[in-house]
Write a structure and sequence with these properties.
Length: 99
């Protein structure tokens, strides 16, 4: 259970990083770095959770933790999408100022 709890803590930290970045008035470069850090934290949680799932003997428990694993991957994808949106807005802003 400790491994699953650790993975959920990584998941919560990455989600909080993404939420903090979307709410705080910091520079774009800092936002991008924090979102990348959140994605890396999510990636760290995946092998931990997968190792814990491999040790389970009950099918319903295994499926429940697989759902959590999908949620962790979704958070990681959310972090990357946010990074790409921030980069796109920065490029669009530069292009608008050049015109």
């Amino acid at each position: 259970m400790g491994t699953a709890l650790l993975a959920m803590c990584f998941c919560a930290v990455s989600l909080l990083l993404a939420l903090f970045v979307s709410l705080s008035p910091i520079s774009e470069k800092a936002k991008i770095r924090m979102l990348y850090a959140g994605a890396v934290v999510s990636f760290i949680a995946v092998p931990l959770m997968d190792r814990y799932i491999a040790g389970l003997n009950s099918y319903p428990e295994e499926m429940r933790y697989r759902g959590v694993l999908v949620f962790i991957n979704t958070i990681c994808c959310f972090c990357f999408i946010m990074v790409f949106m921030i980069k796109y807005q920065a490029v669009k802003k530069k292009a608008d100022t050049l015109e």
